[in-house]
Specification:
A 4-stranded antiparallel β-sheet has the order 1-4-7-2, with no helix packed on it. The chain has a 3-stranded antiparallel β-sheet with strand order 3-6-5, with no helix packed on it. Helices cover 35% and strands 19% of the residues. The chain is of the alpha+beta class and 167 residues long.
Length: 167
């Protein structure tokens, strides 16, 4: 299965700290682990899951079955990074952050008396894209329930898929 994996700038897992074998001209080495979601296994995301896991570096990953499909991630016993998604660079991270900030402002402006103070000031770093995406989704949820939260996350996924040319 083709999926995606966000890592730190130096190629480490955000939660595990594991230093992934990075692809160069060829895919990185295979990594194996028993599946126990949130504890062990090769964790990755589908395109719909991208906004939940944003970090500085994005890679395409090849996963081997069996794949445990979770709500906002997939977990497999074996995977390898096949290539870095170079389109996810500082410019794309800032553009995503700006899109989320604009969206949060738009949503909050629809009910300013209720959502005053929910939107970060212009002093927030646009590279804090994961935080800004979460804020926009939370404001949507406050306005329209969990379905609106999911709709906002779907909007963010569509933006990422388009900007990063993932389909």
């Amino acid at each position: 299965m083709r999926a995606f994996k966000f890592l730190t700038a130096d190629g480490r897992g955000v939660f595990s700290g594991f230093a992934w074998p990075l692809p160069d001209a060829r895919p990185g080495s295979w990594v194996e682990s028993e599946i126990d979601p949130c504890r062990s296994g090769i964790h990755a995301c589908r395109t719909a899951d991208l906004p939940y896991w944003l970090t500085p570096a994005l890679y395409e990953i090849e996963l081997e079955s069996p794949i445990d499909e979770q709500a906002i991630k997939v977990v497999a016993p074996r995977g390898r990074l096949t290539k870095r998604v170079d389109e996810w660079d500082a410019g794309a991270q800032e553009a995503f952050g700006q899109m989320c900030l604009d969206r949060a402002q738009e949503l909050a402006a629809s009910v300013p008396e209720r959502l005053a103070g929910w939107v970060p000031t212009s002093g927030v770093a646009l590279t804090e894209s994961a935080r800004l995406g979460f804020i926009a989704a939370r404001i949507a949820e406050e306005l329209g329930g969990f379905a609106a939260h999911l709709e906002e996350r779907n909007r963010q996924s569509a933006w990422l898929i388009d900007r990063l040319a993932l389909d």
